Amino acid sequence: MKKSHRIASFVESLDTGAHPDQDPHYVGYFVCFNDQRYYEAHDVLEQLWLKSHGAHHQFFKGLIQLAGAFVHLKKQYLRPGHAKDGRRLRPACRLFRIAQSNLEPFAPKFLGLDVAEATRLCAANIAAIEHSEFRKNPWNPEKAPRLTMNP
Predict the structure, then answer these.
(1) Which of 4, 20, 62, 86 has the most CB atoms within 10 Å of its CB?
(2) Domain residue limits, the chain
(3) What is each CA distance from 135 to 37, 41, 68, 88, 115, in whole angstroms?
(4) What is the rounded (10 degree) CA torsion for 65, 5, 14, 37?
(5) CATH, domain range 3-9+22-143
(6) Which 8-state DSSP code applies to residue 114?
(7) 105 preceded by cis ω (within 30°)?
C-alpha cells in the first residue's frame, strides 16, 4: 500500500470527537507522537503542512521538525553502536533548535497545543545532549514525552 493511502486510511480511522474543529491530520500527529511513532507523526502532519500557508505553515513545520528530532533519538537509542544510527545526536540537536525557532512565535498556545511546553521540551533535549558532549541520549521509551492538545 502506498504511503498516501496508508496515511489516508489511518486518518479516516481516527476518533476526532474530542477535537471536532481540528483537521484529522493534526489530531493524528498527536496520536502518533504520543505512541512514539515519530516518523509516522511526521508523515501524517506533512500532508497538512503541504497544503498550509502563512503562520500555520511555519507552525506545522516546527511540529514536523520536533517529531524528526525524536526519530533521531529513538533510532540512536535502539541502535547506539550502528554506524549511522549511533551518530544521530547532533542531527537531533539541530532539529530541536530549528523546531524551537519555528514554534516560539506561537507561544504560549496555538491550535490547542501548549507551545511554551513544546519549546521547553526542545530546550531540555538540546541542553541534555550538549551537556553530555553528544555522548548520551536523553530519550527513553519509559519516559518518552507526550504532547497534549486541548480543545
Answers:
(1) 62
(2) 3-9+22-143
(3) 24, 26, 19, 10, 28
(4) -40
(5) 1.10.3450.10
(6) E
(7) no
Closest to 58 measured CA to CA, from 110, 7, 121, 19: 110
Kindly tell me if the per-residue pLDDT of 3 is higher than 90. Answer: no
pLDDT of residue 14: 80
User: Whose grid coordinates read 502506498?
Assistant: 2
Mean pLDDT taken over the chain:
94
Residue 76 cell numbers, joined: 540512536
* Sequence-ordered alpha helix ranges (H) in 35-114: 38-49, 54-78, 89-103
Phi first, then psi: give them for residue 84, nearest 5 degrees: -90, -50
